[in-house]
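// run 5 | inverse folding | seed 20
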């Protein structure tokens, strides 16, 4: 039926609907086919996958005139460097009555390079045996796959796609894990972002096997090389999803993990394929190698207010602790000051016994409250907690800490969160860099404050912000989509101010920054400011700016990192 359809289309095109025919005298037949009329199939295989046990491939050769036995000369064009690897017959033979035969190309598989591709151009070498109605030549490719060796079944937990769509939940699922004999120090996860990924639908990913590569040669510097994932959800606008490493991961006891924001996210056709944002935003990305025994000594801690003693004159801080399934007890100590970011020394002291701690057996279903045994005066404290296994061994790597302000009994109201933000022309603050970062395409915000514990920012075009604010509060927007600013917290507490800037933005466009801050007393505040990248707007703002308190140091961000902007 397919041939009849093509014939009808050809007849329509030659007469009537497209060009018109004045009479039968205008029609001219095609060339007359003569001889054996040998040709290669237009629907035949052109790419051959050479597996380990493969020793030959067969190429179909056809003819129209099949009455007689004939021998047909075949020429082969192949690169000199690998021509000697293949035995290609110079002729094929058709027995009488046969319309199809095979050209059998043989080789020694052990001499072919893993991962290589070999191109061979075949042609019928006698023009009198060809036909104008079939292909006299055929280009084929022989590909040798990489030697992947199955290590076994492990599991993969994704926290990459969550950076693309915050409504996507972290997913964990089993997968096959391989090594490559030609590339020691790497592992390969089969199809974790194609057919296995739960949110994919047919058409979202490539159909051939896709191996996700991870370098594990140094357990302290696990690296995911920049690579496409073989999946895309909007091929015309975004293209293939791309992953890379922002901070090294670690391999411990057969489990690979990365720090929060330790991965990078990009899409091939968006922003010229450059990095768009961090990934592993929840810190949940994990690969469990075959044979690894998962243990869960995880801890999370949060300040849970205080409890007043029976005499109503004393108060004791409380901490709520969530713990993993393998935690049997925890050791806890309360220390003066905010040490939520630098508690490693305290953990070491708890483990070696040089710092006295209280051991508390776990209770409840994965969560319990711990109340300090000692009365405390009002002030800022940090609770440092170390999980222990059933034998009492401390698991220092899973220790947690939480700092908090403890008001004590009858304390005055805690100070409000001191934070403010403004938008300024970059050239007025950093004139030495104005040529590199012109005001027409650069957006700079500066924040002032004190006693800040955490800071989160979100920058978007003002028009986009206003649209979102119809459904969400500013606090919800920045908490759900913002970037944590650990370095800026240090700056604002030491210098009284901090900043960030964004480059390569469209000119004459208004942008808005939203900051969410929490102070050491537990109070929060959300502030925002807007400004335009238009030169005239920047000039007006410059007239109002006093730079006497701006710290005189080099802008922190390099261009490679200035991508935290939603366009």
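// decoded
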């Amino acid at each position: 039926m397919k041939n009849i359809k093509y014939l009808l289309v050809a007849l329509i095109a030659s007469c009537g609907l497209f060009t018109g025919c004045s009479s039968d005298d205008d029609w001219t037949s095609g060339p007359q086919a003569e001889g054996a009329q040998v040709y290669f199939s237009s629907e035949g295989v052109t790419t051959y996958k050479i597996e380990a046990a493969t020793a030959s491939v067969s190429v179909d050769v056809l003819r129209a005139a099949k009455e007689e036995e004939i021998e047909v000369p075949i020429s082969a064009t192949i690169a000199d460097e690998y021509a000697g690897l293949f035995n290609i017959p110079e002729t094929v033979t058709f027995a009488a009555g046969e319309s199809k035969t095979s050209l059998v190309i043989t080789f020694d598989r052990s001499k072919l390079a893993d991962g290589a591709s070999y191109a061979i151009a075949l042609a019928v070498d006698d023009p009198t045996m060809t036909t104008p109605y079939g292909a006299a030549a055929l280009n084929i490719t022989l590909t040798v796959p990489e030697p992947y060796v199955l290590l076994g079944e492990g599991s993969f937990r994704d926290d990459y796609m969550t950076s693309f769509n915050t409504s996507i939940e972290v997913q964990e699922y089993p997968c096959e894990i391989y090594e490559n004999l030609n590339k020691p120090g790497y592992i390969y996860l089969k199809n974790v972002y194609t057919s296995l990924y739960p949110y994919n639908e047919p058409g979202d990913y490539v159909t051939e096997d896709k191996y996700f590569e991870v370098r594990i040669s140094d357990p302290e510097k696990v690296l995911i090389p920049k690579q496409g994932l073989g999946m895309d959800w909007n091929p015309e606008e975004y293209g293939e999803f791309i992953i890379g490493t922002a901070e090294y991961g670690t391999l411990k006891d057969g489990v690979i993990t990365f720090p929060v924001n330790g991965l990078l996210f990009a899409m091939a056709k968006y922003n010229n394929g450059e990095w768009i944002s961090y990934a592993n935003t929840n810190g949940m990305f994990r690969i469990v190698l075959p044979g690894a025994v998962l243990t869960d000594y995880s801890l999370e801690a949060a300040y849970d207010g205080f409890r007043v003693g029976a005499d109503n004159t004393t108060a004791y801080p409380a901490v709520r602790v969530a713990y993993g399934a393998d935690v049997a007890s925890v050791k806890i100590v309360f220390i003066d000051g905010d040490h939520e970011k630098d508690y490693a020394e305290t953990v070491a002291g708890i483990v070696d016994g040089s710092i006295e701690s209280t051991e508390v057996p776990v209770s409840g279903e994965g969560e319990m409250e711990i109340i300090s045994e000692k009365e405390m005066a009002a002030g800022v404290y940090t609770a440092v907690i170390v999980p222990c296994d059933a034998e009492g061994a401390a698991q220092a790597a899973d220790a947690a800490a939480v700092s908090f302000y403890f008001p004590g009994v009858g304390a005055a109201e805690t100070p409000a969160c001191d934070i403010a933000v403004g938008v300024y022309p970059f050239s007025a603050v950093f004139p030495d860099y104005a040529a590199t970062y012109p005001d027409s395409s650069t957006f700079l915000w500066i924040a002032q404050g004190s006693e800040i514990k955490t800071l989160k920012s979100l920058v978007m075009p003002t028009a986009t912000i206003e649209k979102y604010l119809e459904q969400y509060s500013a606090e919800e927007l920045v908490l759900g989509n913002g970037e944590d600013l650990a370095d800026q917290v240090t700056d604002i507490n030491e210098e009284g101010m901090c900043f960030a800037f964004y480059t390569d933005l469209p000119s004459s466009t208004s942008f808005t920054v939203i900051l969410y801050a929490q102070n050491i007393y537990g109070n929060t505040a959300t502030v925002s400011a807007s400004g335009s990248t238009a030169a005239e707007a920047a000039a007006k703002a410059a007239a109002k700016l006093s730079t006497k308190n701006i710290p005189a140091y080099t802008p922190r961000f390099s261009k490679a990192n200035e991508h935290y902007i939603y366009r």
